Amino acid sequence: MLIMCQIVLTVLILGLVAGCSKVNEVFDPYPSDDLSIESFNRNKDSFERLAKIFGEDSSLWSIDATGNPRFGDQPALEPSEIRKQEYIKLMKTTGVRSISRHIHTPEDKSIYFQMWWVRNGPFIGSKSKYIVYKDGNTRGFVASLDEIFANGRDANESRQIDADWSLYLDVW
């Protein structure tokens, strides 16, 4: 009887751990492409302002919605308090969680606006959706990220919004 209880408890714990990413998605559901594009279009001026100031703050690797900056390998200048407050205000308006450069080179002008993130599994992995400015890394675009997300597999795909903007889905 004791062995049976241990087996049942182990199965329950494993089921709970394996289902953590699904629990996260209940509280923070995946935003559809249509919803993401609608939000982008409604706040396009704010996104463009964020892209402009983040481009000017070239020593920043990323900045989160509370104004906390991270820097790459280059010498960095801390953004002024006024600039941090502008980031915070615009990120709140747009729903952006963080802004980052994924490849920190002078040639790459891509800026990633993280809109959604949840853990994918109990220990490592995540699911993220971004709005990207000047996506210089994508070789081709797909018609729908929603279909790719729904299949449950790893993803690293983009969908074009317009000439300068795209959606990016990263699942691993």
Protein architecture, described:
This protein starts with a helix and ends with a strand. The protein has 172 residues and is of the alpha+beta class. Mean pLDDT is 83; it is low at 8-24. The protein has one domain (33-171). The chain has helices spanning 2-18, 20-27, 33-42, 44-56, 81-94, 145-150, and strands spanning 60-64, 69-71, 98-100, 111-119, 126-133, 155-160, 165-171. The protein contains six helices and seven strands. A seven-stranded antiparallel sheet has the order 2-1-3-4-5-7-6.
Can you give keywords for this protein?
single chain; alpha+beta; seven-stranded antiparallel sheet; 7 strands
Which helices and strands occur, and which strands form pairs?
Layout: H1 2-18, H2 20-27, H3 33-42, H4 44-56, E1 60-64, E2 69-71, H5 81-94, E3 98-100, E4 111-119, E5 126-133, H6 145-150, E6 155-160, E7 165-171
Antiparallel strand pairs: 1-2, 1-3, 3-4, 4-5, 5-7, 6-7
Helix pairs in contact: 4-5
Strand adjacency order, main sheet: 2-1-3-4-5-7-6
Q: What is the H/E string?
A: HHHHEEHEEEHEE
Number of strands: 7
Radius of gyration: 19 Å
Quickly give the structural class.
alpha+beta
Summarize, please.
By secondary structure, this protein is α+β, with helices and mostly antiparallel strands. It has six helices and seven strands, in the order ααααββαβββαββ. The termini are far apart.
